């Protein structure tokens, strides 16, 4: 078992994979081969078009190289000699990468067997230290991520310190494939995408829309309970708004082209915050009004490259559960603690129990006085400590306009997701000259916090689908129960039962297909219906039903009142 950090093992595995490709395809040209969060990849340009079957041969060659325990030898070269070596080898992509290295920086290469790579390291001592490897897939990738450049061939793989760790990961990936929200979204008729509408723009189907309505309603009710007020703002704004906010300077590549209205440029909004500030600026504010907690389910549009789009998890149009807290410096500590508590409550309500905060501190380039940063960081730390949470610190990982807390949650199969963000902002209050009248009668600059609990509703829904594997808990399920008449003779009794349950607030349908009871049960299970209510001759006669529960199996015969009591308890307590 290797004792090196996973990042080092995986980076070394990428080199060994490239060495294996060089053996099998001598004409290959190489770009880059970094480690990633879950493995590694390498980009190649070669005549042979890789197919999935090729991965077996490449992996076999890799394992032979690993077994030879080849040393990773580092050597330094001057720029002229490095250029000469790469030019003679025909490695045009590496020459471009060499040009990216600053003039005063050291130029290093690593040699593994016959393979030599421009690389700053680090690596394991020899290939035998890599542990266990597995090649996973092939994809296309534009050089430097630019669609104008040539598309290269990318091989993805993963590596772990031990075979046991690798097998555990592969098992998790197998389970993840079963839970893939893109597959389940089609199977359960929840959402779709259309080439006619455009990539990255989600079409919510009735069932998906109902689930969204349910968690939106929960979100709104909880926000009102916790002292928030809701805002609604436009989808477009004049260019002057985005110039003032700085988006046209710092974020233009992520914005869509302007449209001309009345000879002025308007942009569809990439963010909601400038609109909330305009509400604040609509009149003079007093310290007595603060804190203001304003929230909005605001739809925004951001340009994402087509290769980055991924189902609901990465889209171009999405609704953000946005909120901005505007308060005095004296109020900030309590506000942060309350936001963090509220964030944990929301995620735990959906069944996520393993939640960890990450604290990002001041980067090298930042706006705002250092003392404000320090006070903000103290407030963030105190909020984390107050709730008894352990956190990791990301030194220098804050945005240029303020420190932040990111929450990451683990799902049902152990994957970690980036979720809620609590972000200080020292930039926009300055840019928009936000002030309030203090107790001393003078103008003061308020503190401003951006806060998203779910993030994007689309991404949140994608995570929920995978968390539950499409089997939504009763309170979220678009269809909570399905009545299954054994034959046509029970049709009237089934319809009467549906009417009673709907009057009591439950979402119920009747399966009226001319099919066997077994087939109806199979269909209901496939569609993840929480409750199946079988009505045969006896049940129709005495006003009962044979109840099947998706989790608990056969529950026996129940009266309407007994069923309603059980279902009501699950819904009211949001049983997961």
Task: Provide structural commentary.
Zn(2+) binds at residues 273, 324, 450. Keywords: Aminoacyl-tRNA synthetase, ATP-binding, Cytoplasm, Ligase, Metal-binding, Nucleotide-binding, Protein biosynthesis, RNA-binding, tRNA-binding, Zinc. With 576 residues, the protein is of the alpha+beta class. The protein folds into three domains: 6-175, Threonyl-tRNA Synthetase, Chain A, domain 2; 187-233 and 269-468, Bira Bifunctional Protein, Domain 2 (BirA Bifunctional Protein, domain 2, 2-Layer Sandwich), CATH 3.30.930; 481-572, Anticodon-binding domain (Rossmann fold). It contains 18 helices and 27 strands. Strands 10-14-15-22-19-18-16-17 form an eight-stranded mixed sheet. Helix 6 crosses helix 14 and helix 11 (332-349) crosses helix 12. The two termini are 39 Å apart. The model has no long low-confidence stretch (mean pLDDT 94).
Query: Approximately what portion of the residues adopt beta-strand conformation?
Result: 25-35%
Q: Ends: how far apart?
A: 39 Å
Relative helix content: 25-40%
| Count of runs of 4 or more consecutive helical residues | 18
Biggest pleated sheet: 8 strands, mixed
What spatial form do the alpha-carbon principal axes imply?
A: globular
Report the CATH C-level class of the largest domain. Answer: Alpha Beta
By DSSP, the count of extended strands is: 27
- Let me know the average pLDDT: 94
Query: What would the CATH topology of the largest domain be?
Result: BirA Bifunctional Protein, domain 2
Task: Name the strands of the widest sheet in spatial order.
Answer: 10-14-15-22-19-18-16-17
Q: Could you name the CATH homologous superfamily of the largest domain?
A: Bira Bifunctional Protein, Domain 2
Number of domains: 3
Provide the gyration radius in Å: 29 Å
């Amino acid at each position: 078992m290797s004792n090196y950090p996973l990042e080092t093992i995986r980076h070394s595995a990428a080199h060994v994979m490239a060495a294996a490709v060089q053996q099998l395809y001598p004409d290959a040209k190489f770009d880059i081969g970094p480690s990633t969060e879950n493995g590694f990849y390498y980009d190649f340009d070669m005549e042979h078009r890789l197919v999935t079957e090729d991965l077996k041969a490449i992996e076999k060659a890799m394992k032979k190289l690993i077994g030879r325990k080849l040393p990773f030898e580092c050597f330094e070269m001057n720029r002229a000699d490095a250029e000469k070596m790469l030019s003679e080898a025909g490695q045009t992509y590496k020459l471009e990468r060499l040009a990216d290295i600053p003039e005063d920086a050291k130029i290093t290469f690593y040699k593994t067997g016959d393979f030599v790579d421009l690389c700053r390291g680090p690596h394991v001592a020899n290939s035998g230290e890599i542990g266990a490897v597995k090649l996973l897939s092939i994809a296309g990738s534009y050089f430097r991520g630019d669609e104008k450049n040539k598309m290269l061939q990318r091989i993805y793989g993963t590596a772990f310190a031990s075979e046991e760790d690798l097998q555990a990961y592969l098992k998790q990936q197998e389970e993840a494939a079963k839970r893939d929200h893109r597959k389940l979204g089609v199977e359960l008729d929840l959402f779709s995408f259309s080439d006619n509408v455009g990539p990255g723009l989600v079409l919510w189907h009735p069932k998906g829309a109902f689930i969204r309505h349910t968690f939106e309603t929960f979100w709104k009710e909880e926000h009102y309970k916790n002292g928030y007020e809701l805002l609604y703002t436009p989808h477009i704004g004049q260019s002057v708004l985005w110039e003032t906010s700085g988006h046209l300077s710092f974020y233009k590549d992520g914005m869509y082209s302007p449209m001309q209205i009345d000879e002025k440029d308007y942009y569809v909004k990439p963010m909601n915050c400038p609109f909330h500030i305009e509400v604040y600026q609509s009149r003079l504010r007093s310290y007595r009004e603060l804190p203001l907690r304003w929230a909005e389910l605001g739809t925004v549009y951001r340009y994402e490259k087509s290769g980055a789009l991924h189902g609901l998890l990465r889209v171009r149009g999405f609704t953000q559960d946005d909120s901005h807290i505007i308060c005095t410096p004296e109020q900030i500590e309590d506000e942060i603690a309350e936001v963090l508590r509220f964030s944990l409550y929301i995620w735990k309500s959906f069944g996520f129990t393993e939640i960890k905060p990450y604290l990002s501190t001041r980067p090298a380039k930042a706006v705002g006085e250092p003392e404000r940063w320090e006070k903000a960081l103290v407030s963030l730390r105190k909020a984390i400590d107050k709730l008894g949470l352990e956190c990791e610190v990301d030194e220098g990982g804050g945005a240029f306009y303020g420190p932040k807390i990111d929450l990451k949650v683990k799902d049902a199969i152990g994957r970690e997701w980036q979720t809620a963000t609590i972000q200080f902002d020292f930039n926009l209050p300055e840019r928009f000259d936000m002030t309030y009248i203090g107790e001393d009668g003078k103008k003061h600059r308020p503190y401003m916090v951006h806060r998203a609990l779910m993030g994007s509703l689309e991404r949140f829904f994608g995570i929920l689908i995978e968390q539950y594997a499409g089997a939504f808990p009763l309170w979220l399920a678009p269809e909570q129960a399905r009545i299954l008449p054994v034959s046509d003779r029970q049709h009237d009794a089934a319809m009467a039962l549906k009417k009673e349950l709907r009057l009591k607030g439950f979402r119920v349908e009747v399966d009226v297909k001319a099919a066997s009871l077994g087939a109806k049960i199979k269909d209901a299970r496939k569609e993840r219906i929480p409750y199946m209510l079988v009505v045969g001759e006896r049940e129709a006669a005495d006003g009962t039903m044979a109840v099947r529960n998706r989790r608990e199996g056969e529950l026996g015969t129940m009266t309407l009142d007994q069923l309603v009591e059980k279902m009501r308890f699950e819904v009211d307590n949001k049983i997961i």
